[in-house]
Write a structure and sequence with these properties.
H-NOX domain, four-stranded antiparallel beta sheet, three-stranded antiparallel beta sheet
């Protein structure tokens, strides 16, 4: 799928998700909202996906080569999304990302969204054929993993170039053993200084 182009002109995005993206825009991009005619009153309940993508395209063009703008929007969007997901583990939230995407969009093709593949324990491959920018998707994945990971779990996301409009992300999850109470007590810094 081509980035910034909706799969169909009639695709709609749930207003809370679209509004969250709009609210998360950097301050210098806020004037774009009015210039594109986007406001909650104009789109009760749902917003045309192409309108939202046009806004994101404008934001992308103003970033001047800095990918962190879209990544930070994705990171902050993950905080909003976690309120709408019910998962206990990072693997679970990634496994159900396509379902969440489909529920957040109306009239979207069932072929559009995310796929989850587990290649080995702790090695996952996520692919996306959504029209959203890959840096925003990376930020969303990072934010979701940060929120849902176990206390003793670390992760790494590799963004890979996709073919034919598909963006791929390799996710490495690693579990570290938690120290026992006895191990913590044996360390000299576990005791308060006298």
């Amino acid at each position: 799928m081509t980035k910034f182009i909706a799969s169909h002109p009639g695709v709609l995005v749930r207003q809370p998700i679209a509004q969250a993206i709009i609210d998360l825009l950097p301050l210098h991009c806020k004037p774009l909202i009015g210039s594109l005619g986007l406001s909650p009153a104009n789109h009760p309940g749902w917003m045309h996906q192409q309108d939202l993508l046009n806004l994101l395209r404008q934001v992308e063009s103003r970033r001047e080569g800095n990918p962190f703008g879209m990544v930070s929007i994705g990171l902050r969007l993950a905080r909003v999304v976690t309120d709408r997901l019910s998962a206990d583990r990072s693997e679970d939230v990634l496994r159900h990302l396509k379902t969440f995407y489909q529920r957040a969009h109306r009239f979207e093709s069932p072929m559009i969204g995310w796929t989850y593949q587990e290649h080995a324990p702790g090695l996952l491959r996520m692919t996306s054929n959504t029209p959203y920018p890959s840096d925003l998707e990376y930020g969303l994945l990072y934010g979701l993993l940060q929120h849902y990971r176990s206390p003793n779990q670390t992760f790494l996301i590799e963004q890979q170039s996709g073919l034919g409009g598909v963006q791929a992300y390799r996710v490495h999850l690693r579990m570290h053993p938690l120290p026992s109470l006895w191990q913590a007590a044996d360390r000299h810094d576990a005791y308060p200084s006298l």
